[in-house]
Specification:
two-stranded antiparallel sheet, about 190 residues, mainly alpha, about 55% helix, elongated, single chain, 2 domains, about 0% strand
Length: about 190
């Protein structure tokens, strides 16, 4: 019995360590997005809840980071955050390919999403351009369909409220009712 408890606790420790690592990646990507989009820095800071990994493959750093960057770029652009990211589409296609062979159109979509999500990673297809030239319009349709079907319908920012403190430090966040000096913010 003691051995099984130790095994469960060991797995729990690994799972928690993995979650903290993903949280660190999220914080790093938020900080980078805030530097890229200073005007939207407060909104981006409050976007942490959008960055929940939805697929087991997102425990891989480059997969998760791509997912987070795409969502944060959507936040900064004021775009819908619910449709699946390119990384999420890759995760769906990876899982699908374990069940059945991908069609040429699906393989073309996988190539496209891989190149979009992971441009720094080696491509494992030599025929990405061929898929695009043969099936480009169908790949477009499948991308739209897949992003919609794999969407996270509850992944959007709700009304943001802020205490005026970020990570325990006083900040002048536009979502706080008062600034760091304790003055009420005007409704603007």
């Amino acid at each position: 019995m003691t051995g099984s408890i130790a095994a469960v606790l060991g797995q729990l420790e690994r799972d928690v360590a993995g979650l903290f690592e993903i949280m660190d990646w999220a914080e790093e990507e938020i900080a980078a997005a805030r530097r890229r989009h200073a005007v939207d820095a407060d909104t981006l800071w409050h976007s942490f809840t959008l960055l929940v990994p939805r697929h087991e493959l997102m425990s891989t750093e480059f997969v998760y980071r791509s997912h987070a960057v795409e969502l944060l770029e959507r936040v900064a652009a004021g775009e819908d955050t619910r449709p699946a990211t390119a990384a999420e589409v890759c995760c769906v296609l990876a899982a699908s390919s374990e069940v059945a062979s991908l069609t040429s159109v699906a393989a073309g979509l996988y190539c496209r999403m891989w190149q979009r999500a992971f441009p720094e990673q080696p491509s494992f297809w030599d025929s990405a351009d061929a898929y695009e030239s043969l099936h480009g319009a169908q790949i477009d349709e499948l991308e739209t369909f897949t992003r919609r079907k794999a969407a996270s319908t509850d992944r959007s920012l709700s009304e943001i409220t802020c205490s005026g403190r970020h990570h325990g430090e006083d900040v002048d966040c536009r979502y706080a009712p008062v600034d760091s000096a304790g003055r009420l913010r005007s409704a603007s």
